[in-house]
Amino acid sequence: MVSNDLLFSEQLLPCGKVVSNRLVKAAMYEHLSSILGGPPNKFHYALYSAWSEHNWGMIITGNIQISREHLSLGRDMVVPKILTDKTIQPFQKLARIIHGNQASDCLAIMQLSHAGRQSGNILGGRLPFVSPLAPSAVRFGQNKRDEGIISDVFHRLLFQTPKAMSSADIDNVVSEFVRGTLLALRSGFDGVQLHVAHGYLLAQFLSPKSNIRTDEYSYDPLLLLSRVVKAIRDVVPADFILGIKFNTGDYSVLEEGEAKTAQEERALAHLWQVVAWRTIDFIEISGGDYENPEFMLSPSSFTSTTNARQAFFAQFSAKLMKALSSKFSSNDRPPLVLLTGGLRTPAHLYTALTAHHAHLLGIGRSSVLCPNLPTVLKHRQTVEADLSSDLTPFRPEPDLSLSFSRRRPWEWIWRHVPKVRLIGAGVGMAWYAVMMRRLAGERIRRDNDGNSRKIEDQAQYFLEPDYSIGGLGAIIRMWMWVNAPELQQKQLTFLTLLIIFCLVLYMYSGGYSSQLFL
After folding, report:
1. Helix and strand element counts for the chain (H, E)
2. pTM (2 d.p.)
3. Confidence at residue 113, expressed as pLDDT on a 0 to 100 scale
4. Beta-carbon neighbour count of residue 144 at 10 Å?
5. Cβ(109)–Cβ(189) under 8 Å?
6. Alpha carbon 246 to chain centroid distance?
7. How far apart are CA 413 and CA 396, in angstroms?
8. Which residue numbers delimit the NADH:flavin oxidoreductase/NADH oxidase N-terminal domain (predicted)?
9. Helix, strand, or coil here: 353?
């Protein structure tokens, strides 16, 4: 029998700070900021307060963009161009909320990101059809021509061919990451996580399909990351946490062959170089990009894909764990390994730890379905002998398929409709964004009513997810946000613009469910 205390054992980071337990609220895109980006607001505060009440060992924010001109889906949190007491204040409040009450030991981590070539034309923060920056002038989606003309047209409309970065552009990006880190430091965060995955800029320099430069940044793909890491370490205290979210590869996890094996070997070699710097405190294992977006898929709709993805990341992290244990002595403190994805039952959590797949366990979508998960597990371990064999999901995943697509003759017709995988994968992301918005809204209403629950009631308290919302409903609700921050000030103008944006996006997506875009 596995000890229930395993989940709640402390973990020491190389910088000297302690993670109070193994459960990490992984970064998720909240889509809560003002349109075209801004600081955290009351919706972020409400959402993160729902998590901070429940004894997470670490809470990582959604990606905060270091460049206002390189947003992802338009409602990103953004690092201010100038750090002043006024511009820092909203981030200070977010850090205080994540830390919770004085009895909480939760670590607050700010995830920093630059979208690079994945910053779209419409909501990327630039004028329409102004090129984003990237390692090379390789358009996002250029490698997806095998998906057909509709996919190609979609990617051409939404993603501009990027501008290859000059030396000055690269220097500026390093400075922007440093400014983001100083924002985190001055705001009271315990550290930052650099987003080196999912096809964002730092990952683009590591990928041969997006980095075809002929200078030192091609010969040494880790050069930009190493410059960023060194520049950050030069300006922060020794106990400031520095983590990375790292891509194992930008291929589909369902593919097999020499190319995939070669990418895995290259990723392990890259990670071992990163470990050798002895400046990184934790490494989160991830993979894929927006051209192969398995990391965005809904587990209930893609059981085989999700299982393959989960198994691959677990296998990869296990190899990294084994290498770390063999290379470091007992007196050394190697970076901790954080495994995220597919951990949806107590058995999954205990298996990952007992099989030595990771030191820390990242909970993403299940943290939205069960924001009180650590409280629930802590309560259960006091009354149940063994949770390690419990395969009951924390909460059910949503069914985002269209019901009529499973009936004849529509099933046959739907099977032959051209698909765009990025849109399909994004439907699941939209559903969880709507649930986070709903969770924040409920928390705001609860606080306004003065209906705060006692600590002893929190293990039983959670807001039921609204499973009546399907894929199409999630897309509409995500973009038609009537309580958006900007609409509180300029109702008619911004509502009109939002409706136009929504109609354009709806025409591109056709309201398709994620089940239909494999």
Report:
1. 16, 14
2. 0.88
3. 98
4. 18
5. yes
6. 11
7. 29
8. 19-380
9. helix
